[in-house]
Amino acid sequence: MQLALVHESLTTLGGAERVLVELIAAFPGAPVYTLETRLRAPFLPPEKLTTSFLQGLPRVLRRSRAHLPLFPIAAETFDLSAYDVVVSSASGFAKGIVTRPGTLHICYCHSPTRFLWDAYHELLEEFPSGTIRRGLFQTLMHGLRLWDRAAARRVDLFLANSETTRAGIQKYYRREAAVLPPPLSQPLTPRAAQGESDPRRYFLFVSRLSPYKGVRVVLDTFNKLELPLVVVGEGREATTVRRLQGPTISFRGFVPDEELVALYAGARAVLFPSDDDFGLVPIEAMAQGTPVLALRRGGATETVVEGITGEFFDAPIEELLADCVRRFLENEGSYDRETIRAHAARFAAERFRQGIRAFVADAWNTWQRREVRIVSQSGFLR
To answer: Is residue 382 part of a domain?
Structure first.
């Protein structure tokens, strides 16, 4: 069985990219196709990597939204005719690859394309009503939605990262999906001794700094509470949100995994105010025995156990987040680090590898029988 992996853009080392690391570990030797990359990482040897024509565009264009209409075309240009199975790791355009009739295409879906569906109206608010730019944006999104629905029909089997994603696949694409939660990344395995003896002095927020991640409500809340907060991450809102930095808040930008582990282990709690379809940050935090204060939406409702591994707040507004922080502070002593770690162990990387290998093997065996039946029914095998 010849297998290839297809991923979205490799521009940051986020949750989807950490899943790609484990897909590469599960299928060693498999080539990786990606629309574009700015990463240089040991898990991604150049001789195994193929990029699309987007890689050759000027950097200033690639860092803007101007080349967004080219992404569907880029996904369709990959020649995958040499492979029996293609596993796409998709939250947008990677599922739109074109494969030959005999190739099995399995899509590990991190989310239906958010900016086209559930986050569309939030993005639309960035464009003033009645402007030409707003009209152009609406027209572009309409066309991309049509392509996105058509691309979803090219997938033979969907594998969702959560029940939330599975429901989104059914709603927007009218397709069914199995569920396999993503893994803890390798460097973030539990370290029982780290941070045990030192008092925890700060809260932690780890995320891409983009609008839907909830960074502004976190900063506004902690400025008013005057509690220590460490912010880890980069993104297109970085310059804007740094202007909201108060005296108790520090920005670390991008940090390597080793430092991130130490930050998780030393935090009083980790904040997760975004409506993600899964969200690896809560799992990474709990792997260090650290409670999570999460928005009661999306994938966090499947991973955080209220009162045991963290607390919830019901909407991304300052008053509710502040109330959640106060509840946590009142009950902080009741949280058991070993219990939290044990809960996170359900998402061990080896479990993911075993699960994805078993799913692909079973799907391929079923697919081969289907191909035999099709040929037999055509009359050529008599």
So the answer is: no
**Owning domain of residue 213:** 187-346
Based on the domain organization, do 46 and 166 belong to the same domain?
A: yes
Q: Are residues 126 and 264 in the same domain?
A: no
CATH code, 30: 3.40.50
Is residue 33 domain-shared with residue 160, that is, in the same domain?
A: yes
- What is the pairing mode between strands 157-160 and 104-109? parallel
Total of domains in the chain = 2
Q: How far is CA 339 from the centre of its chain?
A: 25
Residue type, 278: F
Tell whether 317 and 363 lie within a shared domain: no
Whether residues 336 and 226 share a domain: the answer is yes
Domain of residue 219, CATH code: 3.40.50.2000
Tell me which amino acid residue 296 is. Answer: R
Helix (H, G, I), strand (E, B) or coil at 205: strand
Which one, of 303, 308, 343, lies nearest residue 328 by Cα? Answer: 308
Helices (H), the chain: 15-26, 59-62, 71-76, 120-124, 132-152, 163-173, 215-225, 238-242, 257-266, 281-287, 300-303, 318-331, 337-344, 349-377
Rounded Cα–Cα distance for residues 68 and 58 (Å)? 14
Is residue 168 in some structural domain?
Answer: yes
Q: What is the pLDDT along the chain (382 residues), one digit of tens a residue?
A: 899 999 988 877 777 888 999 999 999 999 999 999 887 766 777 788 999 999 888 876 666 667 889 999 999 999 999 999 999 999 999 999 999 999 999 999 999 998 899 888 888 888 888 899 899 999 999 999 999 999 999 999 999 999 999 999 999 999 999 999 999 874 444 454 444 445 568 999 998 877 678 889 999 999 999 999 999 988 777 778 788 888 999 999 888 888 999 999 999 999 999 888 888 899 999 999 999 999 999 889 999 999 999 999 999 999 999 999 999 999 999 999 999 999 998 898 899 999 999 999 999 999 988 755 544 444 444 3
Q: Are residues 354 and 342 in the same domain?
A: no
pTM of the predicted model, to two decimals? 0.83
